[in-house]
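Usage

Read records sequentially. Each one opens with the input sequence:
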Amino acid sequence: MSMSSDVSAEIRGIGLRARAASRVVASSSGQQRQVVLERMAETLREARPELAHANAADVADARSSGLADPLVKRLAVTDKVFDYMVARLADVATLPDPVGRVLEGHTRPNGLRVEKVSVPLGVIGIIYESRPNVTTDAACVCLKSGNPVILRGGSESLRTNLILAEALRKAAREGGLPEDTIQIVSTPGHGAVGELLKLHDCIDVLIPRGGKGLIRRIAEGTRIPVIKHYEGICHLFLASDADTDAAVALAVNSKCQRVEVCNALEKVLIDAAGADRLLPALASAFADAGVELRGCPRCLQMAPAMTAAREEDWTTEYLAPILAVKIVDGLNEAIEHINTYGSGHTDGIVTQRADWIAQFAVRVDSASVMINASTRLSGGGDYGLGAVVGISTDKLHARGPVGPNELTSYKWIARGQGHLRG
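and closes with the structure output:
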């Protein structure tokens, strides 16, 4: 058997085992899944020494191979990252059971009771880069919603992910669920990913997490439905009545709390009626924060030290200390700009005008709309969802943070007493 045949057989075996596990996990009780999730936090703590050794080896290899420092940092399971991983498992364990909810129901005049009930999606495949905490986040969110998961992390974190996966599988076994509820693809290289993309008869949904190039390759290379977002071109519109200190604080936090993530601010729109007050304060704060501002011609007239923005600046996700700024004439132009140039991820407004808030919330076509709040708050933890497996800017099925509820579908159940159709 050739090497490619070996990989194909290995990946297909993973898919078939996940499909078999799905029948068991889907019928498990919410209580049983909660117990397993609580046990996962314990097995993770038990594996801490082995995990530290494996992660140190991954980090050392990444450095010696010339991986960029920001990516190396994302690999490291520090004490803070480890505590986060354990806390997420505990948080998700205590969330309400998303499976078996009666979403709607009614009794027909003939006595037939019809209900729409939430059910697991099935087998979830998650393909991601670098950060090992995705391994635990993905496993706990999928398990909470009654779904087995197939994990394919980056080769640079393989040792770390194998230890994490084995700790989670141990918890599943001890809790009476199939250990194949959680599986990890250990074969490096693009060939294994290519074989995963072929498993349309085993995997129900794929969720890629990483750069735009990775996500596009996954979405365009498979028949399996994909939950995804390509980029986060996030805007904040400062209305003319925005309080200067509040507007600056929100903009700086949205951009600088972490510049490399998908809900970091990339564009600021300033109402012309308040620009002479807001723009100088904003420029000063971002200069202090080491952020390069790229401004429209009207901005440059008021703040000549800014770099001139080009057309591509309005469609670029920087993920870096760079911010594009534009002066607009009122709410309508701001909304038009966002809906034209944005990516549908997260966009916000700073104002106290109730009529503008109402219009912005309805007319801005984004997965998350922030009213007087940092764009960095658009996510699972800050929305009270516990862990999430990603962000979706699609409109079919899941939109925004993808947590346990978003990994369910539904079925219709009709209860009769010998009812016949006349």
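Summary fields computed downstream for this record:
- Residues 3-227+402-415 form a domain with the Aldehyde Dehydrogenase; Chain A, domain 1 fold (CATH 3.40.605.10).
- The chain has a mean pLDDT of 95.
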